[in-house]
Design a protein that fits this description.
Elements (H helix, E strand, L loop, with lengths): L3 H10 L12 H8 L5 E4 L2 E4 L10 E3 L3 E6 L3 E6 L2 E6 L5 E5 L6 H6 L2
Antiparallel strand pairs: 1-2, 2-3, 4-5, 5-6, 6-7
């Protein structure tokens, strides 16, 4: 199960992209998700053909990808500022955005 603590650990542990994108084993994970998601590698991008052309999550730059993690029910594509979760048992896709760090003054004055 992917909890809030697990998500925080993903952001902490996988903050930068790997030196070689091949270490992420993208074809393996795309094949794992093939039964429910229409994902394809096109040059330097992963394309989610299930989404409409104007959707910002249709094209994912591989050079920005920091990790691909396999959980019990989802596969997580981690980026520096967000994580995209693809359901393994259905067509669902969920996005988690990394919360912005607030400055000391904004926390004190509520801004």
């Amino acid at each position: 199960m992917v909890t809030k603590d697990v998500i925080q650990e993903i952001y902490k542990r996988y903050s930068t992209p790997p030196k070689d994108v091949a270490t992420l084993q993208l074809p393996r994970y795309i094949e794992l998700l093939r039964s429910h998601h229409n994902l394809a590698i096109d040059g330097e991008e992963i394309i989610n053909r299930d989404l409409e052309e104007f959707n910002p999550f249709r094209r994912l730059l591989m050079r920005r990808l920091t990790a691909v993690l396999n959980f019990e029910k989802v596969v997580a594509f981690a980026f520096n500022k967000h994580i995209i979760f693809f359901d393994k048992e259905g067509e669902g896709m969920h996005v988690h955005f990394k919360p912005e760090k607030r400055s000391l003054l904004s926390r004190l004055f509520g801004r």
